[in-house]
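queue> pop job 88
queue> type: inverse folding (structure -> sequence)
queue> payload:
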């Protein structure tokens, strides 16, 4: 994710500037470390990827395969996609 931090004295700063969202970075870590994810956590992670990419409209060709692979992977944890979209519709 491309955002820089303005927090001083951080113990850990992890940045992947080619990633579409912070949630995509977390999903990559989940896959790499075989972490278990609840359905609720999967909903939030998938939702973060959806909103940061403008519903996948604003991803570039170089990262599209990885973005969709990560989105597909997190859906294996059964996010509640319908409720997520209903929440976003109600908030707007």
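queue> result:
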């Amino acid at each position: 994710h491309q955002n820089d931090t303005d927090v001083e004295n951080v113990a850990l700063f992890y940045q992947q500037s080619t990633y579409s969202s912070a949630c995509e970075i977390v999903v990559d870590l989940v896959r790499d470390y075989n972490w278990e994810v609840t359905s609720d956590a999967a909903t939030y992670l998938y939702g973060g990827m959806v909103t940061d990419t403008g519903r996948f409209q604003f991803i570039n060709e170089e990262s599209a395969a990885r973005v969709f692979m990560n989105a597909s992977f997190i859906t294996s944890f059964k996010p509640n996609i319908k409720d997520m979209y209903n929440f976003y519709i109600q908030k707007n």
